[in-house]
Amino acid sequence: MHDLVIRNANVxxxxxxxxxxxxxxxxxxxxxxxxxxVGEATRTLDAAGLTxxxxxxxxxTHYDAQITWDATLSPSPSLxxxxxxxxxxxxxxxxxxxxxxxxxxxxxxxxxxxxxxxxRSGVNWAFESFGSYMDALRSIAPYINVAVLAGHSVIRTAxxxxxxxxxxxxxxxxxxxxxxxxxxxMDQGAVGFASSYSLNHSGYxxxxxxxxxxxxxxxxxxxxxxxxxxxxxxQLASGVRTVDELEELSVNHNRAVFxxxxxxxxxxxxxDRAIQIFEACKAANSRGQQVYVQIPCQPLSFDFTMANAYxxxxxxxxxxxxxxHPDELKNIFSDNDFRDRFRSSLQNPRPGMIFQGNWNRVxxxxxxxxxxxxxxxxxxxxxxxxxxxxxxxxxxxxxLEEDLKTTFIGQFLNVGDDGVAELxxxxxxxxxxxxxxxxxxxxxxxxxxxxxxxxxxxxxxDFSLAQAIQRLTSHPxxxxxxxxxxxxxxxxxxxxxxFDPEKVGVTSAERTHDLPGGGPRTIRRxxxxxxxxxxxxxxxxxxxYVEHTSGPGHILDRFQLSKNNHSPST
Length: 570
Description:
The radius of gyration is 23 Å and the shape is globular. The protein is of the alpha/beta class. Strand 1 and strand 2 form a beta hairpin. Strands 1, 2, 3, 4, 5, 17, 22 and 23 form an eight-stranded mixed sheet that branches. Helix 4 packs across helix 5 and helix 11 crosses helix 12. Among the domains are: 268 residues, Metal-dependent hydrolases (TIM Barrel), CATH 3.20.20.140; 111 residues, no CATH class.
């Protein structure tokens, strides 16, 4: 007797093999048979006309806080995701001594665009150490599988407090304490260690996130603290750090290194820059090292107002004003000296900055005043040209006129389909970087996988369905050492999604106020998705989450040693 049999499906196994028409049987949370299944089942589902594939593996999320109040990890399960990695860029919430908990949340609210009041009212501090956090996650019993990264910035904050963002050199005793915390995290089942050197990562009141000011030697030492464990990847928001540096790190510590950086996203202003980074990773891999790029499959889009103008935060003019109240910002934005400082920075953008003065990529999305409705969907550059003025003055003056409530959309990187497609196909790329759980007010890329299947498979044909599914499932799972995930084969965990390939995709963004305390966030909903199963249990039925008193997701704490042999099929 099987627990579940899905009949008449078009099965894509996640390993790059061609689809096959087959039945699939599940028992005790694992696939038991694929083919023509005989025998009874507790539940039978007819999947005629639909595709059955492994669930999507999302390597780059920020659900660290949300998971403490939302076991579903919404909206990811509704978008086909069955496994997620949290703690990316080193911005987790553990270890969390009581004295620094609010500091952790304040910094998190700015660097990852989260509502501070929602964080303060929502996070249930039933933990302090990494081990007690893992225990708390097991008690929460999430809907999807979760792996946790140990985080540089949060560990530094736990040890150094406020000094973590102002003092670059840790004392010998402080560094030793940080190493102990990394070792404890690995002992307790961390999937690896994460950090950031990104120019765009700032915390509350404009302070730099702690890891970004540290010498490379500190990061190297903390990676070395994983040495007693065979498993453990390194994830780094690398900023301007070079592939040579990452390769040396991989050599010294025998670790796979996964970088995320705007410099490795397609940029029409510098079309050769990103592919050169990918090719440098390919060369490193050919020498036996493991250096990869996490690459999004959507434009890096930002919805923002000038009350929270985070795409501009890496520019010096915004350094001290990032956490200012809107009333203070109005006075600052009216000041010609401030505008001149911003203009000067735009004339000499540094590598790694998100916004480099390309006002043709900033569009008025929602004017706050009816009298300005005609400006909707116009770029700042075109408005400035029509008015005969400077684009910077246009965005400032319009925002001031509308009480800083004008909503803008910026598409600064990963715009240009042919250039992006080359990166997505590259053997050194890993389709990832959704940032799910972060940028809650304005941006939600949790549906990256369904978007990939809709745009890059059905609409453009850059990938076959089998290639795309592999890119979203077994490829990331194997690189991170997630055991028996991302594939439909006997013995593997029964994480899967059932969808219509002729319709699959995501809706446009919509605003909802369902965070603790009524805080806002932006979500997208699935199109053409019929069911999502985690460890053989349905968690999403195509319309809503299936109610469970205890979610079927596993807290992942055992991993395989990642090998340098996981190139996807092309």
